[in-house]
Amino acid sequence: MFWLACEDLKQETNPELVEEKARLIYEDFISILSPREVSLDSRVREIINANMIEPSPHTFDDAQLQVYTLMHRDSYLRFLNSRIYKDLLQQTSHSLSNSSLE
Description:
Layout: H1 2-11, H2 15-30, H3 42-51, H4 61-80, H5 83-101
């Protein structure tokens, strides 16, 4: 959701809508009060706070880069260790063993 909102912001040319969309992204994903807060380091948060003085379509570029880098490094290993993947493996092996008995 964060990524898509940032990509939508990048397409906006109306300054008033840029400001509104940037504010909504900040409230929904950057604010420490948000239930959907994106994990960002303090350096990126400071950049975003400075960018919010005069929001542009690229206000959240540094945040997107940090999220992308984290996902690139970490998401596959997290997926392999996830409960959903382990359950799927167990179901698949169970199905395969049942079909070989027939």
